[in-house]
Amino acid sequence: xxxxxxxxxxxxxxxxxxxxxxxxxxxxxxxxxxxxxxxxxxxxxxxxxxxxxxxxxxxxxxxxxxxxxxxxxxxxxxxxxxxxxxxxxxxxxxxxxxxxxxxxxxxxxxxxxxxxxxxxxxxxxxxxxxxxxxxxxxxxxxxxxxxxxxxxxxxxxxxxxxxxxxxxxxxxxxxxxxxxxx
Length: 182
Fold this sequence. Notes:
Shape: globular
Strand order of the largest sheet: 1-2-3-4-5-6-7-8
Number of helices: 8
CATH superfamily: Aldolase class I
CATH architecture: Alpha-Beta Barrel
Distance between the termini: 19 Å
Oligomer: single chain
Number of domains: 1
Strand content: 15-25%
């Protein structure tokens, strides 16, 4: 896996088929994270099911661990944000690990350390180059965080396809983004 697409934050304005058609063949993502901070889990889950009809990429849902865990038929991965990572206990994720890929967003060493304890499949480290609300890490600080992470790391924040090689040189498995896929 080297490319991760993250859906824009308004799923109600997004047609799954058109979203998939917007990907170029050369830059088709390996994983799509369904994200909408204002949508319910049910809305994100329904969107993920519709998305699966048009894409061969793996799909994860950005959600709270408890919302994810109570589902009867989960055939998607779970991605948690940094706030959920701080809140959730390892025991909450243990029963999900055999069933799903579990990942998290991390922005600092404390969050990386928590991800290491949780034994996550991968983390998104951000913001590397750009973010509207937080100071950027830059490649030097990204490298330091990536080196401390025991799972796969993907760079997020201002990425474009030309950054893939740079990210890999700085310890990333690949890159993730929203705008580079829309």
